[in-house]
């Protein structure tokens, strides 16, 4: 469909503005991520068995029925008009000038009803013989007829009825009914904000494409705002006019920076290994020589590094972040570290007049590349809101968790659960093998049960294929388990499951699996 006039098209690969059935939301989608509906319909239905996906398919089928009826009616009306014109010509009751005027008028109606836009949607029309959502938007557009916009020239337009994100295992959602819906002030209709410990509801601002929300009142009186499920992310983002800095271009940081650039942000990058910056310079980023220089030249600087020591060195070391901090400068630490570390960093930043936000992310390299991370933020609430367009570019959901330290604790708990689950998966697969059971059959059974998830399937496939290319480094999940166990110790809370899993990961590290994916913990059981 045609995007709103004020919506900026992302830079980079060619893409289209797509409407999603079921969720009724929109997003910019790359050409290579689009699939025609009919050839892939049955395949996608087999993969996605959820109720919401079926509702999306039903919406598509209803749309096709309606457009088919409209096309038939249009064709019938055109035929009648043609017959009337021929009859009128035979009777010769009208003047030559009047005949010309009516004939011209009739041809215009026929052309409008049956021919317009065929060149621009030929790949769609030839498949199903009915209007696509793209053509429907073109019919309604005030743009001059028959002249495609510059961005659409020489492009084959795939059918957009139920476009899927190829890499992310899409699950279609549905729109919350109006009785429990309320728009929110964010510009992106596909980005989920969860505002915890919030004393009052956010101001309401209606956008051209609104985000539907389910507002759940907590017993404490705070408000949690939950958006409807969405198959499309990173749609109508208006990039902040603030200058953005980014320090650390590892597995997670690289994907984040790429999405910031695609969505139109001005980004200056720095990495300890300078060569990693080259690709992003080619994409339009600027190069910072030191962390201090990046912070001093940018309004908001993000950092994403490996562990507490790296996070401290980045801020407190030579030519570090702290040397570039002055009143009003903003620093957002996205590293997964312990609460004590992040609290110490917040104190030194604020002592220099800076503003601080912690914002560790839940996800992996693929989710980072796809802009599908989950962001856990805590600290300066105003800075959290200033980062809105950046969080929308890099993630699908953000949570604001209150004071500094809360996000670090929550992130360690999340990764503790994930790491323990991964170790259990590996344990189950090896037990199946040594007892003569099929590992593939075990995976098939798990995928049909309550444990079914993208994470389970991907990690099991890694193990079955012997492919341990890192999506989340094993050494980092072990670090997070260690920090989570320490968090439990600090409040005298037992963490025996995490402790057991930690020992398995330590054995895997001893087997030189540190730089492999976390699923390589499997090798600790077979050696």
Quick description:
The chain is α/β, with parallel strands linked by helices.
What does the model show?
It is a single chain. This protein is α/β, with parallel strands linked by helices. Among the domains are: 54 residues, no CATH class; 180 residues, NAD(P)-binding Rossmann-like Domain (Rossmann fold, 3-Layer(aba) Sandwich); 114 residues, N-(1-d-carboxylethyl)-l-norvaline Dehydrogenase, domain 2. The chain contains 20 helices and 14 strands. Strands 3, 6, 7, 8, 9, 10, 11, 12, 13 and 14 form a ten-stranded mixed beta sheet that branches. Strands 1-2 form a two-stranded antiparallel ribbon. Helix 7 links the parallel strand 7 and strand 8. Helix 15 crosses helix 17 and helix 18 runs antiparallel to helix 19. The radius of gyration is 27 Å and the shape is globular. It comes from Leptocoma aspasia. It is found in: Chromosome. GO terms for molecular function: DNA binding; NAD binding; NADP binding; nucleosome binding. InterPro entries: 6-PGluconate_DH-like_C_sf, 6PGD_dom2, 6PGDH_NADP-bd, GLYR1_PWWP, HIBADH-like_NADP-bd, HIBADH-related_NP60_sf, NAD(P)-bd_dom_sf, PWWP_dom.
